[in-house]
User: Fold this.
Amino acid sequence: MANSNRGVDESRAPLTAAEVVGLHKGAAKGAPKCILVVDDSPTERHVLNDMLTKSGYEVVTSDNGEDAIHKARTLKPDLIVMDVVMPGLNGFQATRAISRDPQTRTIPIILCTSKSQETDKIWGMRQGARDYIVKPVDREELLAKIAAIG
Assistant:
């Protein structure tokens, strides 16, 4: 199977057909869940990718909201971990688009952001997020939230 753990410089590259087929075959065999990590920061993508792959998850990354919507539609990941503050389409807007699209609305989204105000959390949940975690991410907290969504 092609390696879908995209490096920092490859996050904008389109997925190959082998990656798409491999992710779906892996899911059918009971392999780890596929998680789409969306963050404009290469460092944050790397940290989350490392954290999740070491916990047995298949990770695909994206660095912007538009690409996240595209990958949500084409890959149908089991879960999306979405940053909020990004240029272009922000995480709230991308979450709203994904959660209202008939093709993707069943994909749970965890917003993962530095925005720690209660009003931000409420707004994020109103956009369709299933949960909300504040950076810096605590590994155990994130894994617990993922497990709770199941």
